[in-house]
Amino acid sequence: MTKPLHVGIVACSAEGAALCYRTICAEAYTLLGRHMHPEISLHNHCLGEYMQCIERNDWDGVAALMLSSARKLQQSGADFLISPDNTIHRAFAQVAAASPLPWLHIAEEVASAAREHGYRHLAITGTRFTMEGPVYPEVLTAHGIGYQIPSPLDRTRIDQIIFDELVNGIFRSDSLGIISGAISRMKAEGCDAVVLGCTELPLLIGNETSPLPVLDSTRLLARAALRRAIEHLPERLQPVRR
Length: 242
What we know:
Strand content: 5-15%
Number of helices: 11
Distance between the termini: 24 Å
Strand order of the largest sheet: 5-4-6-7
CATH class of the largest domain: Alpha Beta
Number of domains: 2
Radius of gyration: 18 Å
Number of strands: 7
CATH architecture of the largest domain: 3-Layer(aba) Sandwich
Helix content: 40-55%
Largest sheet: 4 strands, parallel
Structural class: alpha/beta
Shape: globular
């Protein structure tokens, strides 16, 4: 094979999926040359369908939606899959076992980046389903990395900002202040970096405004997909980074 692998994106929320897609396209030129990026296909069952399952704790239903997208992306020619949505990774094990294509795991990419930078105790932000769920605890514990989640009040506020504002493309300075304050409190309690564990959060807060260094799950996953897409190429076909 002399061209990159075809990336399949299993989307959930539009803003997060769009950021992931844009990141792959925008950063690929450093690896592949001007205006070049891997072939990309995206399939999206609507966020409302996912939320109906999530809110009734129906992770089998979430897995069914993800697998439906996976099969459609296989038919489109995708070689492997990613999902730029942290919350639905709670169904990942079930999905990966039944999927027609291999996947990259968003939390694994975050954990790898944390280890590379020497971070030892991470603040976890995201939806309440992510902050209170098992996705990051399981992965970070396996990597020997500590973690902490915000207080109950901060969790409620962050979750509201995500679902009332960010997924709808609304970015408010007062909401940035609320999330920054929550991160500051976890920094005071010993965290050395923060996981932006909702794929829309990087659209609101980044290293310039965060009290802690950020681990941007959306862009980390996109960059991992780029590496996966070209890792099989002979070295002579990979342009020098610039």
